[in-house]
Amino acid sequence: MNVNDFEMIARLLKERSGLLLGQDKAYLLESRLNPVARQYNFKGFDELAQAIRLGKDEKLLEDVTEAMTTNESFFFRDSKPFDQFRDMVLPHLLEHRVSRKSIKVWCAACSSGQEPYSLAMILKENEARLAGWKIEIFATDISREMLVKGKEGRYSQFEVQRGLPINLMVKYFKQDGDRWQIDDAIRRMVTFKPFNLLDDPSTIGQCDVVFCRNVLIYLDQVMKSKVLARIAKIMPPDGFLYLGGAETVLGISDDFKLIPGHRGVYGLAGDVGHPMATAVG
Question: Which DSSP state fits 85?
């Protein structure tokens, strides 16, 4: 792959998804786009690059973007954020949403659905406390292929073994051939929709909890700031934002502050900010 082709494709990806791709990721670009080249019967990467440069095939551009923005996920990833959700976030919401009895969660960049289904299982395990409550879990991603897989709720043996506690696998999954099908009751708790984080999330509506983990690391500083500002606008003063363990708001956003003692969990800043947040990012 020559430098001009790499820079052209990198610009395309940044414009369409916000993905920031350095020269050190040239190997990743080639490995992920070679299957796309074969799918379109191009003779090689050079022919694929030429077709991208022409920009006449919107479906090709969508497939290229999807191939580069699809990231792996697994159930209860890193475990700690889900413990925080169960032990700190949920009790807060149960206390402070009692008058309206509703909770809305948004999982941004949900990939193939493991994150929102993990949250759904936690909420299902607490259904006695949530009797009479309206629970909404919105799961969005730029990849329509991943959304289809998430909606199906069918996972390989390898996927269900990654992070999923054995008691929850037995309780909420049934084996179907070489796949594991998640229980319909859990599947119905999650609504999957296509969404690009570069767009305005106001169509999603106000969310009590937003999971946007391990996404900002792929964006440049300007885009990170814009994404966080947009998320802030759809959160109530005592809402919760989850970022990845390696992500921070320091030097990027003044809209959020860290919830003390809970790494990766943020609340709104400002005069009417989160009652549990500090000034540390």
Answer: I
What pLDDT digit, counting tens, does each position of 75-93 carry?
A: 999 999 999 999 999 999 9
The answer to whether residue 105 sits within a structural domain is yes
Residues 32, 110, single domain; the answer is no
Contact 122, 89 (CB under 8 A): no
Q: For residue 202, is it left (φ>0), alpha (ψ between -120 and 50) or beta?
A: alpha
Q: In a 3-state reduction of DSSP, which class is residue 89?
A: helix
What pTM did the predictor assign? 0.85
Are 23 and 160 part of one and the same domain?
no
* Residues 31 and 89 both lie in one domain: no
User: Whose structure tokens read 């708790």?
Assistant: 189
How much is the pLDDT for 70? 65
User: Whole-angstrom Cα distance, residue 34 to residue 55?
Assistant: 18
Number of compact structural domains in the chain: 2
Beta bridge partners of 155: 180
Q: How confident is the model at residue 217 (pLDDT cuts 50, 70, 90)?
A: confident
Angle between helices 26-39 and 45-54 (to 10 degrees): 80
